[in-house]
Amino acid sequence: MAPSALLIALPALWACRDPNAGLPRPYRTLTVPERVLAPSAEVRRKGRELYLRNCALCHGEGADGRGARRSALTTKPVDFTQRTWCGEATPRRVFHAIREGVRGTAMPAWKALDEDQSWDLVAYLLSVCEKGAEV
Ligand code: HEC
Description:
Elements: H1 3-17, H2 25-28, H3 34-37, H4 41-54, H5 56-59, H6 83-88, H7 91-100, H8 115-131
Helix pairs in contact: 4-8, 7-8
The chain binds heme C.
The site of heme C has 21 residues, from helix 5 and helix 7.
């Protein structure tokens, strides 16, 4: 392979391996709080409570994307129980979506929630993959 081809291929390979690639730098290197990685029942409960108050309208009480607002939305709310999502979600990516929203969709930036609350939501959403939506 020509050296110039390598220069192109290497960053591309690297991007495949880092699931947080594509995030703006401050989000890519954030310190993820310990409680997010192995959330206690208490943290999950706090996250679930925030979730029901702010998110279930679109993402559904069962976190399966089937909230009341779903049918009115062109880009459907994410189903957090889905295998594909579970496989790709990382704490930093979920945190970024909550803090900044998803441009071009109904997903707003949750500036009214503070960072601690956002991490509790991250902990809860990532735990749904393994433990289901109920706490
Ligand atoms: C008004 C409807 C609505 C509300 C309320 C809402 N969302 Fe969303 N959400 C969406 C839509 C639509 C998307 C975009 C789906 C896509 O990009 O395919 C989305 C995407 C996301 C994503 C990105 C998933 C990914 O990995 O691409 C996360 C995480 C998320 N929402 C979490 C939340 C949380 C947490 C709350 C509550 C604090 C919330 N959402 C409230 C509609 C909503």
